[in-house]
Amino acid sequence: MTISTRTIGTGSTALTVSALGLGCMGMSDFYGTRSEEGTADEQESIATIRAALDLGVTFLDTADMYGPHTNERLVGRAIAGRRDEVVLATKFGIVRDPDNPSARGINGRPEYVHQAVDGSLKRLGVDHIDLYYQHRVDPSVPIEETVGAMAELVHAGKVRFLGLSEAGPDTIRRAHAVHPLTAVETEYSLWTRDVEAEVLPTLRELGIGLVPYSPLGRGFLTGTITTTDLLDESDFRRVNPRFVGEALDANRAIVEKITALAGTKHVTPAQLALAWVLAQGADIVPIPGTRRVARVQENAAATEVALTDDELATLSGLEAAVGDRYADMSTVNR
Questions:
Q1: Per-residue pLDDT tens for 22-47?
Q2: pLDDT exceeds 80 at position 13
Q3: Which of 57, 148, 185, 302 could form a disulfide with 274 if both were Cys (CB 3.0 to 4.6 A apart)?
């Protein structure tokens, strides 16, 4: 299998990436694992990243807050000796205390931007980052100041291209006026489509790519999660509004329809859900996460799934997911 490529951004800020990326967050945090160096979990995650590279899935996404810090170190170990094959994206701005990871804040101050990138470079074991995102917009710091500091990183050669995560249209415009953005990362899938109203049109007007995280609805759209009882006690999905109570029942009905259509096409529900995201435009590059080699292989095959107009219409016409996508501060400044 040969994974095709796509281009996000335009002109001097255009970046060519694999049509499908790999989100690495779940290898270290939030889904019931905190892999330590040398453990079986960590070795499996490293094998998954390397299998992705072998398949041509070379767009890797991490962040300094995953772990915190441990995910960048894991990714760094996985790509050692293969840096030239990788388009490496990481993020700063959500601050967590390693001794109390549940406590978090947002920091977009210029001095922190410089401090954060140096930490990420060291943990990743690289001399530059291909795509550097502000993970969440800091409402206490003008976006112009934060992006101005990020632009200094480009001029210093520490970063090649810039992006924002979970930013609204006005913030995107203001940031782009300071230094052209290559991508905006935000949640987008068959059950999270609010970006279609304002964010995606803004990105296309400005020539900025969209990088959807959780394109499989945190695993729910794979059809493998019917209850949270089997999830690890520390898995945050146990308290996610879409995974509990009546919302869970309603959302299962959505997945049943996806599963039925997938069966008629002889593909998996995950492949069908990813194919739908990929079909929304060549400027969209989803980054499904997994820590399993078999799942990387399954997801990569989605790039070869062609959807008819009727199939696209059926999928696009599915009812909206029930429940908020987050119960925390993650939609600040959207």
A1: 999 989 876 555 555 556 589 999 99
A2: yes
A3: 302
pLDDT of residue 280: 98
Token code pair at residue 60: 């890797």
74 SS3 class:
helix
CA-closest candidate to residue 289, choices 59, 78, 8: 59
3-state secondary structure of 101: strand
Residue type present at position 331: T
pLDDT tens digits, 265-288: 999 999 999 999 999 999 999 999
Q: Which two tokens stand for residue 296?
A: 């990387």
**Is 173's pLDDT higher than 50?**
yes
Angstrom CA distances, 196 to 56, 58, 189, 281, stand at 29, 27, 11, 12
pTM: 0.92
Q: Which residues are 132's β-sheet partners?
A: 90, 162
Q: What residues are labeled active site?
A: 66
Cβ-contact 183, 132 below 8 angstroms: no
Contacts of 65 (CB under 8 A, 6+ apart): 91, 94, 95, 96, 104, 135
Work out the number of other CB atoms within 10 angstroms of the CB of residue 211. Answer: 28
Q: Contact at 8 Å (CB) between 212 and 186?
A: yes
Q: Taking Cα atoms as reference points, which of 169, 162, 213, 165 lies closest to residue 192?
A: 213
